[in-house]
Design a protein that fits this description.
single chain; alpha/beta; 2 domains; two-stranded antiparallel ribbon; elongated
């Protein structure tokens, strides 16, 4: 088997693919119309795009054209992934002697002329961003044995990624959503027969600062009339059953309650009247879905742009222009949903550092607004 040799540049490409896919978590991108180059994407790395270019480029003019093409394709990827900044690393395996890459520069694209793995050491931006790359480019296997090992490792990584995605996106029964809907309906029925029920549990600045803190939560389970209830429960059913499947039951319930609390807090800061309704918590679920979608934008980019963002904008506009709607509870819930989801974490995506920051930001939001509420009185 080892008597069969593989071309040096092909072996180098395989080693680079093995490193970036198996060890750094990059995923191949399908780019239509390109040849002799492989695009890899990992939105959590400094270089979100890595290009491995094996096609021969023989002069500066061809290199200039390649740079222009790369910029155009990166703009499309930037829009698709909702990225504010997109840095790319282009690794050229087969540059001609007439190409002088030092004459080119770009704020978002780094270039490397790599004939063999030792050339990686020439570029500080590579060793800084990928300090372990050199240690992972040497293998005891040779020839076809090396090819089979690298291929097997890459396929195993792709299978693991597919299993994780299937775990996250596999539909699950939305038990918590059903329970929340049932609780809201039951409380509404009780409110129809109990005098002063809404008054005793609704969100209100003066009663809350007087010590009735439970109203910050109880108010999100109350509804003024049947139309208010039906509208909110329909929204909760549509959004909730999807988000519960994505986040898991415990995290989903935490986001719902924390979003409702965040909406109530902003509501009492901006308004001194009475407020009821689950819409603050439901807007929190929209914010949570947006945060989740951003982390899984490789799968949900079109859904984010065509459904989630328009849904949030339309409902906020309705709140601004329609009377009798507590728009501040909506905005507070939306903010709370994003921060709460950051705090509880997105499966396979969030780091402990991100979750700690999420809790810190959420607590700062709650404490600061409550402090300002007391200063109003």
């Amino acid at each position: 088997m080892n008597q069969i040799t593989i071309a040096e540049n092909e072996e180098l490409v395989m080693k680079l693919l093995h490193y970036f896919i198996s060890l750094k978590g990059y995923n191949p991108i399908i780019i239509h119309g390109v040849q002799n180059e492989i695009w890899l994407e990992n939105l959590n790395e400094d270089y979100k795009i890595v290009r491995i270019v094996s096609g021969y480029i023989h002069n500066n003019e061809q290199f200039k054209n390649d740079l222009f093409k790369t910029k155009v394709l990166m703009k499309n990827i930037k829009k698709r992934t909702l990225s504010f900044r997109l840095n790319a690393l282009s690794i050229f395996i087969n540059l001609g002697d007439n190409v002088h890459i030092e004459e080119f520069s770009d704020n978002n694209i780094s270039f490397a002329n790599v004939k063999n793995e030792n050339d990686l050491n020439k570029y500080q931006f590579i060793t800084t961003s990928f300090p372990d790359i050199n240690n992972n480019m040497t293998f005891k296997e040779k020839g076809l044995e090396l090819f089979f090992k690298l291929t097997q490792d890459i396929n195993a990584k792709n299978e693991d990624d597919a299993k994780m995605a299937e775990d996250v996106f596999r539909p699950k029964k939305p038990i918590v959503t059903y329970v929340l809907i049932a609780i809201n309906i039951l409380i509404f029925i009780v409110s129809m027969f109990a005098n002063d029920f809404l008054y005793n549990l609704a969100v209100n600045r003066y009663l809350i600062t007087d010590g009735q803190w439970y109203r910050l939560i109880t108010g999100i389970f109350l509804h003024a009339n049947i139309f208010h209830l039906v509208f909110n429960m329909y929204a909760l059913y549509i959004i909730g059953m999807q988000l519960e499947s994505f986040l898991g039951k415990g995290k989903y319930l935490a986001v719902y309650l924390l979003s409702g609390l965040a909406g109530s807090v902003l509501s009492i800061f901006m308004s001194s009247g009475f407020s009821v309704g689950a819409s603050g918590a439901i807007f929190g679920l929209m914010g949570s879905l947006l945060y989740f979608g951003y982390h899984y934008r490789v799968y949900l980019d079109s859904v984010i742009k065509s459904q989630i963002i328009p849904l949030i904008i339309i409902n906020l506009l309705i709140g601004f222009f329609a009377s009798g709607i507590d728009i501040w509870a909506h905005i507070g819930g939306l903010i709370g949903g994003v921060l709460a989801t950051m705090a509880v974490g997105v499966k396979y995506k969030s780091t402990n550092f991100e979750k700690i920051n999420g809790w810190i930001l959420y607590l700062i939001y709650i404490v600061v607004i409550i402090y300002m509420v007391f200063n109003l009185n």
